Amino acid sequence: MRDVMKSDLQEARDSWRGVCLLLALVAGVASANESKGVLETIHHHVTLASTVTENGDLNPYAVVVAPVSAGKIEKDDVLVDNFNNISNLQGTGTTIVGYRPSTKQTYLVANLPQKLPECPGGVGLTTAMTMLKTGWIIVGSTPSTDGTTATKGDGCVIVLDPNGKMVAAWSGATINDPWGDMAVDDRGSSATLFISMAGFGLKSPDVIDPATKFPEIIHKATVLRLELNIPDGKPPELVSQTVVGDGFAQRADRDNFLLGPTGLALGPDGTLYVTDGLDNVITAIPDALTRTTSAGTGKVVTRDGLLSWPLAMVYTSGHLLVCNGKNGQVVEIDPSTGAQVYAQWIDSDQAQSPPGNGDLFGIAITPDGQGFYYVEDDMNTLMRASR
Fold first, then answer.
1. Residue 5 dihedral angles phi and psi, to the nearest 5°
2. Which class for 225: exposed (0-12), middle (13-18), buried (19 or more C-beta within 10 A)?
3. CA gap 327, 95 in Å, rounded
4. Are the C-beta atoms of 271 and 288 separated by less than 8 Å?
5. What gap in Å lies between CA 37 and CA 28, rounded to an integer?
6. Contacts (Cβ under 8 Å, ≥6 apart) of 223
7. What's the start-to-end Cα distance of the chain, in Å?
8. What is the pTM of this model?
9. Kind and range of the H or E element at 79?
């Protein structure tokens, strides 16, 4: 994602946000008095903290709420990782920042070495991050040396203890640039992770398709299921891997590093929802926890409409909240009907066109379920949306 510091536009942004805070479209035949979902109850947006670290890392990607207290982390702390280094090169960020709501302070969770022998290509932390109930942190790496896919490595999945020390790194034929949100079924002594892999066959952004005048779109991105065993007091062990989805669109991009499936959200019935930004669609993979074969790209839930390059996604109260990449809106979806219920501007930086274009990425529900955390890449800040 681009990172442009524009603190002098904060007043204008706040004014714009006040004008278009509750931009909404009603789906189906819902009446004006009928509750539309979660977003219509959200009225407040607060800047909590800068996510820039002492070493200069920036471009916040993943947003994760700590489920337990362990090591230096307290329950309900918000963890954010960075994709860029001080030179603003994508795929080179190595840090995870913690924000403690009780004290309103930030602290460094982890600072990994740029070069990691166990991780092909090095370290560039992505939106694929979680913290397990046992305290272990798992995060994906999609590395580069020049900030583009021309020098990208295959990357890896890194396991950290709750004090930020690396204890393991997983790589191999099925792991190629762990990219999007990590959907998780955490059972304590075992866990299931879903991660999108968006690096297979990816070329330099300078390799242009003559027909489109953009880098070539290829349909090789996958969704990988990882089964973990977590022995008492010991790091997670990778037991098995299964590709549950494949054929998703991906391409190199100079401004955004790569475009590929980003949002993953697991429904209570075991359905996995996936955002495919290039095709501007959300799809569903049934029986994701148990299936033994790939469902391809799954069944279409909804496409186009309010969606504008859907990125990060989270499941809450029976609905999906999806961040748009091409404007500053978050969109609420009813996955049971595919209805696009509501949209709200949460980033209205008019330095981009349309406002907020390229600024949003990670999203996580607050512990009380009354709002959500998100990041604004243009300002390198962690935000909270609430009622």
1. -75, 120
2. buried
3. 27
4. yes
5. 14
6. 194, 195, 196, 197, 243, 244, 245, 246, 248, 261, 264, 272, 274, 285
7. 28
8. 0.91
9. strand 78-84
Residue 113, pLDDT above cutoff 60: yes
What 3-state class would DSSP assign to 349?
coil
Q: How far apart are CA 305 and CA 281, in angstroms?
A: 10
Tokens of 245: 């989805």
Evaluate whether 193 touches 182 at the Cβ level (below 8 Å): yes
How far apart are alpha carbons 299 and 270 in whole angstroms?
14
Q: How many angstroms separate the CA atoms of 216 and 74, rounded? A: 44
Q: The tokens 């955004």 sit on which residue?
A: 256
Distance CA 305, CA 36 (A): 17
* pLDDT tens digits for range 262-300: 999 999 999 999 999 999 999 999 999 999 999 999 999
Give the three-class secondary structure for 11: helix
Tokens 């062990």 correspond to: 237
- How much of the chain is in helix, strand and coil states, percent to nearest 5? 5, 45, 50
Question: Contact at 8 Å (CB) between 188 and 134?
Answer: yes
Smallest CA-to-CA distance from 118 within 165, 177, 80, 167 is with 167
Q: pLDDT band for 245, please (50, 70, 90 cuts).
A: very high
Mean pLDDT of the chain: 92
Measured CA distances, 140 to 94, 113, 126, 371 (Å): 11, 14, 6, 26
Listed by start position, the domains of the chain span 7-386
Topology (CATH level 3) of domain 7-386: Neuraminidase (2.120.10)
